[in-house]
Design goal:
There is one protein chain. By secondary structure, the chain is an alpha+beta fold. It folds into 3 domains: 6-147, Protein-Tyrosine Phosphatase, Chain A (Alpha-Beta Complex); 168-313, no CATH class; 315-350, no CATH class. The protein is 24% helix and 18% strand. The chain has helices at residues 24-29, 45-48, 70-81, 96-109, 113-123, 131-142, 152-167, 237-244; strands at residues 6-10, 13-16, 34-39, 52-57, 86-89, 194-197, 203-206, 255-256, 271-275, 282-287, 291-292, 298-299, 302-305, 310-313, 316-317, 335-336. Strands 1-2-5-3-4 form a 5-stranded mixed sheet, with helices on one face. Strands 8-13-10-9 form a 4-stranded antiparallel sheet, with no helix packed on it. Helix 4 runs parallel beside helix 6 (131-142). The longest helix has 16 residues, at 152-167. It binds zinc ion (ZN) (2 copies).
């Protein structure tokens, strides 16, 4: 029989190709107890019956979302390595399975992409994660090698993934519910500043839902694919100092936000207007493929609220003026939003 196309990366973790999975006896001789398939179809029962098996559906395409599957793969690999060994494979053992293997090393040993890739390449020289997977690995590094699906970086990534599907016309049915932020009134954390409709005072979104971008940063402003915040982009003189201090130049010209629940019926088309769900006054617009901020940055996808249409309200804990001293401590849920507070300056947009 031909040589088994698997290679040990670290103790209990092997990387290989689909070919190797046909030689079940050979795998057993190597001590393989678990198989993780990352491919467009699972293995046959005859290939898996002797092993603990997990299948992740994924094509070797740039826009395939492996990042969302990382943790599930890590958990399986971890369980395999408790006394056994796992073979991680795709078709050729070069792109998809190599990406998962690199990500696992990053997560396990807190390595950056280059370090983890180096370890894997040292064992299997031909590995070649596709460019989309490399971007996901770099994003994973920026996330601190931790998958936190509630983090801003992860949400932005999912939003950009969705935007790509929208642009390609691949969105079937309604928007995935986890992509929409909850309406401010439903939020459990009331410590966040809230932006209210200037006309009817309805709370529209929270400050934490604002998506910042760097000034005039070009095509990649919002894009999760830009590996690191650009520091040497074109900038005005006053910004040079900030650049020297290595700080990110965040635009304050416009309010771009993550999509919120109340938009769900509106934003299923490619672009359109955003209106207050209560008083219907016009608030801004959305364009899935992106739009240009007045600062010159290209922002995609864009959910744009005009600063002149909303007021920013900072919550205050209820001050117990008339309450006796014996009342329980003020909790974060006991907050009020003053009806008239800090008003963001109008930015002259129409
Ligand atoms: Zn309103
Ligand atoms: Zn801007």
């Amino acid at each position: 029989m031909a040589k088994l196309d698997i290679i040990q990366i670290i103790e209990g973790l092997y990387l290989g190709s689909l070919d190797a999975t046909f030689n079940t006896a050979g795998l057993q001789e190597e001590g393989i107890t678990h198989i993780l398939t990352i491919d467009h179809r699972p293995l046959n029962a005859s290939q898996t019956e002797l092993f603990q098996y997990k299948y992740i559906h994924a094509l070797d395409l740039e826009d395939t979302d492996l990042l969302s599957q990382f943790q599930e793969c890590f958990d399986f690999i971890n369980s395999a390595r408790e006394g056994g060994s796992v073979l991680v494979h795709c078709f050729a053992g070069l792109s998809r399975s190599a990406t998962i293997t690199i990500a696992y090393l990053m997560y396990l040993k807190k390595l950056n992409v280059e370090e983890a890739e180096g370890i894997v390449r040292n064992k299997r020289e031909a590995i070649k994660p596709n460019i989309g997977f490399m971007r996901q690995l770099h994003l994973f590094e920026r996330m601190g090698c931790v998958i936190d699906k509630t983090s801003g970086l992860f949400r932005k990534y999912k939003l950009c993934q969705l935007a790509q599907r929208m642009q390609a016309g691949f969105l079937e049915g309604s928007l995935p519910s986890d992509i929409l932020m909850c309406n401010p009134l439903d939020a459990t954390d009331k410590t966040d500043a809230v932006y209210k409709c200037r006309k009817c005072r309805l709370a529209l979104f929270r400050e934490s839902e604002l998506i910042s971008h760097t000034i005039g940063d070009g095509e990649s402003s919002f894009d999760w694919r830009s590996k690191v915040p650009t520091t040497n982009h074109h900038c005005s003189e006053k910004n040079v100092k900030a650049d020297n201090l290595n700080s990110t130049l965040v635009c304050d010209k416009s309010l771009f936000i993550q999509p919120v629940q109340w938009m769900s019926n509106t934003i299923t088309s490619q672009e359109g207007k955003l209106s207050c769900p209560k008083c219907s006054s016009k608030l801004g617009s959305f364009v899935w493929y992106g739009e240009k901020c007045p600062c010159g940055a290209w922002v995609a996808p864009a959910f744009h609220i005009q600063t002149s249409k909303v007021d920013k309200c900072i919550p205050h804990p209820l001050v117990a003026v008339s309450a006796p001293v014996t009342t329980s401590p003020v909790s974060s849920s006991n907050t009020v939003y003053p009806s008239l507070t800090l008003v963001t300056s109008a930015d002259g947009e129409s």
